[in-house]
Fold this protein.
Amino acid sequence: MSLIAPISPIAVVLLSGGQDSVTCLYWAKQRFEQVHALTIDYGQRHRIELEAAETISQLAQIQSHKVLTLESLGQLGGSSLTDSIPLEESARNGLPNSFVPGRNLLFLTLAAAYAYQLNCHDLVGGMCQTDYSGYPDCRRDTLDALESAISLGMNWTTTIHTPLMFLTKAETVHLAQEVGAMEALRWSHTCYEGKRPPCGICPACRLRAKGFAEAGVEDPLLQP
Ligand SMILES: [Zn+2]
């Protein structure tokens, strides 16, 4: 059994519709001949994210945008992203209750299964451990282990690219400028409250605003 396979010029990008995944989509467009976006509908309360992902996929003129469902995560509940419960900064195990256990592990495994069908070895995700809220499935160590598990379990060499992993939010804004993602960011969604225009006060809005302020760049989402 060999794990060696030719690297193809195709990438599957996990696209949530948020700032980070949109930046990754445009990063991938510069590096791969074909880019396929994958959005997972896991029962997130804010359906506006799914609309954002579709709008941005069209804007980016990529090869395809697929939506797969993973309703089990919503059925399990317990997270402020899937249930109507208030956000708690330190709910359990030192993590905020916006943590959805297993989410990125399942997303990337599904993405790998989809990539296999496309004859693709390259996955791209916006996980970032620099500003990370304590989510253990956003750490590079976790993704290295998952990369090995997927490559072995599918006998298909798989690379998980995480271009934002070690960038600050301000550096991510500069990267978005570099790769031409600014127009698309106007349609991205970040707010935990699911509001558009964004509420400006939830932790997600504050983190996004801090990044743009530190980068000295105006957030296209806030332009009239
Ligand atoms: Zn907000």
